[in-house]
Amino acid sequence: MPGSNKNIKFLVDNRDKSDDLVSVKEEVLKLDNSVVDYEEFVDPYCLEKKPQKISFQDVTSAAFLIKGGVEKTPCFKSKLSDHRNLDMDLYLKMDFMQHTGSFKERGARYALLSLRDEQKQKGVISASLGNHAQALSYHGMLLNIPVTVVMPEAAPIMKVQKCRNYKANVVVFGKDMAEAKQLAMKMANDEKLLYINGYDHPHIMAGQGTIGLEILEQVQNPDAVIIPVGGGGLIAGIAVAIKSLSPKTKIIGVESEKCPSFSKALANKGPIHTPIKNTLADGLAVPKVGVNAFETAMPLIDKMVVVKEEWIALSILQLVETEKCVVEGAGAAGLAAILAGHLPELKGKKVVLLLCGGNIDTTVFGRCLERGLAAEGRLVKFTVCVSDRPGGIHELCRILAGLGVSIKDIMHERAWLKDIYSVEVSRILFKI
């Protein structure tokens, strides 16, 4: 559709004239259901045939530059070790306590500080599901650098609004990260903006690696560090830092079963497009890992684990109840791997879990808690037939009260039963 590209460009170029930038997405979709007919734009910092590995010196340089601009987050010994009888010394690195709620601030600030003066005037652009977009927008505002972010439709509304609050130009477009990135790359080319890949740009990876330096400063000689994996930049940076200073420390990556792009890349011996499904760990939903991240992390990772969604939900619940920490699905992935029993070799060891983000949509949070309760057997559903005479349901409730449970929801049905003196009571959910 040659004509539609011109129309799309017109709409994007005039986005500042729109009161609601979501309308840009809607108008684009009317013209063309996808952006697959765009010519391919190449990110010079992320070339598949010339991957760039970052070094320990890159990480220390990042640490020096961002010092004072991001939080040095705490790393506490967890109560979960005793509460869940995990038989390990568990420490929680709480990087969800950054101002924008995730670790992404580290790489974003370092990338922005590393720009040439001319590029600082023109600005930068990126595609993101939310956390990178927020971090780039926030630090762009602080450093007075113009930022544009393209966010796919799956991005949580809360994260989209936060970017607007940080004065960024926001365009919501695409069913996934691949489509959002394609539009962002086109805009970068047309408007002379620098595209900053949220997980594969070398400066982004180096910035994220500063978490590894802090972990080793806060926890002496950890046996393992467990890291959530999406595009791969986080585990790449941390692995470089930790393996350089503590080679015996195991680096373990965790993915959701709904988006195992790094595990697929390892099996393929290189990044490969992986179909992804809706997941509680939306921050990890990257269909193809970064070439630089994969090249850097591959020789340093000791184990990759894929976890089921119910374990992520249960981990979110456990962190709320035991540690009073509200984290998003991606941030709970490491604990999910432990609770699911995927890491028995860590029994009796000193282990650090990275809680990388806390930007969870409130409606999703409620569903996660209920799924966690169900996974743990504390939220139960059943159906039973009782007498339809006065006191029938009351007697059922009396029995349940005697068991020490609370009824959450109740429905009863008469019309489709053969016995007119009975009522079917169904979907009773109760917490133990």
What do you see in this structure?
With 432 residues, the chain is of the alpha/beta class. Helices cover 43% and strands 17% of the residues. α8 links the parallel β4 and β5. α5 crosses α10 and α12 runs parallel beside α14. The radius of gyration is 24 Å and the shape is globular. The N terminus is likely disordered.
Distance between the termini: 58 Å
- What's the total count of β strands? 13
Average pLDDT rating: 87
Radius of gyration: 24 Å
Spans of 5+ residues with little confidence (pLDDT < 50)?
1-38
Provide key terms for this protein.
alpha/beta, six-stranded mixed sheet, 43% helix, 18 helices, globular, 432 residues
How is the secondary structure organized here?
Blueprint: H1 2-13, H2 22-31, H3 56-66, E1 75-77, H4 80-83, E2 89-94, H5 104-113, H6 117-122, E3 124-127, H7 131-143, E4 147-151, H8 157-165, E5 169-172, H9 177-191, E6 194-195, H10 202-208, H11 210-218, E7 224-228, H12 233-245, E8 250-256, H13 261-268, H14 291-297, E9 303-307, H15 309-323, H16 329-339, E10 350-355, H17 362-375, E11 379-387, H18 392-402, E12 406-413, E13 422-431
Parallel strand pairs: 2-10, 3-4, 3-6, 4-5, 7-8, 7-10, 8-9
Antiparallel strand pairs: 1-2, 11-13, 12-13
